[in-house]
UniProtKB/TrEMBL annotation:
GO MF annotation list: beta-glucosidase activity
Name of protein: Uncharacterized protein
GO BP terms, alphabetized: carbohydrate metabolic process
Alphabetical list of SUPFAM superfamilies matching this protein: (Trans)glycosidases (SSF51445)
Source organism of this protein record: Zingiber officinale (Ginger)
Annotated family: Belongs to the glycosyl hydrolase 1 family.
InterPro entries: GH (IPR017853), Glyco_hydro_1 (IPR001360)
Length: 259
């Protein structure tokens, strides 16, 4: 979303950030329709990476590009684009580090069952991850399932500054936010829980089907898989026990509970 551009090209359908941006909720009214245009300029981009001396590149796969409706038929054009990008990186000796979900849930799943708020997301994410492991795992050795599941539920389901633009009535009133009013004492936890279940399901699939088992005519991919957390850090204002305890609570709440 932030890099590829080509939002309506190559069989891709909208993600929740496309909808959010086109509702003119970004401060300068920009969208991701073009972004950095890597979809069309990936060869130039990879050559620049090589010239800079980079040996690794982290990028995200657009679920809406690979499986346009969030589930069902795979889009060959989407698969081909990522094959082209990965092959170009490998040609220059640059290791791809691939994220499967970076805030950009397919809008179709948000419309159908409220996205991260429904347990159905786990099965659909697992099926999407399986496609990616199968199509790209012979060359991709570093996988990230979900980007910052400790932050997305807060920004999207509590503060309302990320899609799907949900916040509490009290917050909307006090800050003048234009957002959908929900019970934000519950919703962020439901979204976060389903993200973690999706992560766990994809990791289990990868380990059993691709990482450790040698399949007939298909060798073990031998890769690594994990998750990305936003590591907000805290320090106690003093060495008093109450301040130290407050720091530990904050770290437990935002980071340690997701380990």
């Amino acid at each position: 979303m932030k890099v590829e551009g080509a939002a309506a090209e190559g069989g891709r359908t909208p993600c929740i950030w496309d909808t959010f941006a086109h509702e003119r909720r970004i401060e300068d009214k920009r969208t991701g329709d073009i972004a950095a245009d890597q979809y069309h300029k990936y060869k130039e981009d990879v050559k620049l990476m090589h010239d800079m001396g980079l040996d690794a590149y982290r990028f995200s796969i657009s679920w809406s590009r690979v499986i346009p409706n969030g589930r069902g038929p795979v889009n060959p054009e989407g698969v081909q684009y990522y094959n082209n990008l990965i092959n170009e990186l490998k040609k220059y000796g640059i290791e791809p580090h691939v994220t499967l979900l970076h805030f950009d849930l397919p809008q179709s799943l948000e419309d159908e069952y409220s996205g991260l708020l429904c347990p159905k997301i786990v099965e659909d994410f697992n099926a999407y991850a399986d496609v990616c492991f199968r199509e790209f795992g012979d060359r991709v050795k570093y996988w990230i399932t979900v980007n910052e599941p400790n932050i997305e539920p807060i920004l999207g389901h509590d503060l309302g500054i990320f899609p799907p633009n949900h916040c509490s009535s009290s917050l909307a009133s006090s800050l003048g936010l234009n957002c959908s009013k929900v019970n934000s004492s519950v919703e962020p936890y439901v979204a976060g829980h389903n993200l973690l279940l999706s992560h766990a399901s994809a990791v289990s699939l990868y380990r059993k089907k691709y990482q450790s088992v040698v399949l007939v005519q298909k060798p073990n991919q031998g890769g690594y898989i994990g998750i990305t957390l936003l590591g907000i850090w805290f320090e106690p204002a003093t060495r008093l026990p109450d301040d130290i305890a407050a720091v530990n609570r904050a770290l437990d709440f935002l980071i340690c509970c997701l380990r």
